[in-house]
């Protein structure tokens, strides 16, 4: 796997797709393959059907390079983890596509509001809570995310598709549950104040 092979793959998929596509860079699910900023920029400039990227790699420098190179185009860059949402906004992210945003979407919107109003201290305080919750969320997997949603919001179950297994909130350690409970409580407060 090298840059030219990866770029050809994305170019071929985008050229044959009826829908626009996002490049998804997530080393954890691709055997460590990391798509470079150079490749993302080349792909965006060479194929109009490639309209954005989700960077779960956490590389804010990469996000900054892509954002600055493609500024003013119809290409959107998204951070892929709540862990670096605020730094990604500063680097030019158009938003976020992240697992934790499925659990506490209003809290993510609040970080964005603070950032846009220039209230960085308040944004940093919420970002810190998101970072701690996001870190623990990485330890529970998809079934754990589903169990948390089921417990706090009353829909779904902690049942994952095979081979992921099943879990419940009771099976998760307090070390994991505490930072998640904190952001869920804040989310619910934001819902009451809406």
Automatic annotation (TrEMBL):
Q: Which UniProt keywords apply?
A: Lyase
A Pfam match is DHDPS
Is the keyword Lipid metabolism assigned to this protein?
no
Name of the molecule in the record = 4-hydroxy-2-oxoglutarate aldolase, mitochondrial
Q: Does the keyword Lyase apply?
A: yes
InterPro entries, sorted: Aldolase_TIM, DapA-like
User: Cross-referenced PANTHER family, in alphabetical order?
Assistant: 4-HYDROXY-2-OXOGLUTARATE ALDOLASE, MITOCHONDRIAL, DIHYDRODIPICOLINATE SYNTHASE
Task: Spell out the SMART domains in the cross-references.
Answer: DHDPS
Q: Record's superkingdom?
A: Eukaryota
Query: Which terms does the record give in the GO molecular function aspect?
Result: 4-hydroxy-tetrahydrodipicolinate synthase activity
């Amino acid at each position: 796997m090298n840059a030219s092979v990866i770029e050809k793959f994305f170019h071929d998929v985008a050229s044959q797709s009826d829908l626009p596509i996002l490049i998804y860079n997530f080393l954890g699910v691709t055997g460590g393959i990391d798509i470079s900023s150079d490749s993302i920029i080349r792909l965006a400039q060479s194929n109009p059907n490639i309209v954005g990227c989700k960077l779960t790699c956490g590389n804010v420098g990469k996000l900054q390079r892509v954002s600055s190179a493609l500024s003013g185009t119809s290409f959107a860059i998204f951070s892929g983890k709540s862990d670096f949402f605020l730094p990604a906004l500063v680097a030019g992210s158009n938003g976020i596509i992240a697992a934790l945003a499925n659990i506490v979407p209003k809290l993510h919107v609040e970080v964005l509001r603070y950032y846009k109003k220039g209230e960085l201290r308040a944004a940093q305080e919420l970002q810190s809570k998101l970072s701690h919750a996001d870190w623990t969320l990485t330890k529970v997997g998809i079934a754990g995310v589903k169990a948390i949603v089921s417990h706090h919001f009353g829909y779904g179950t902690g049942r994952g598709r095979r081979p992921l297994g099943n879990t419940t909130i009771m099976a998760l350690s307090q070390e994991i549950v505490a930072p998640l409970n904190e952001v869920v409580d804040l989310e619910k407060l934001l819902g009451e104040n809406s």
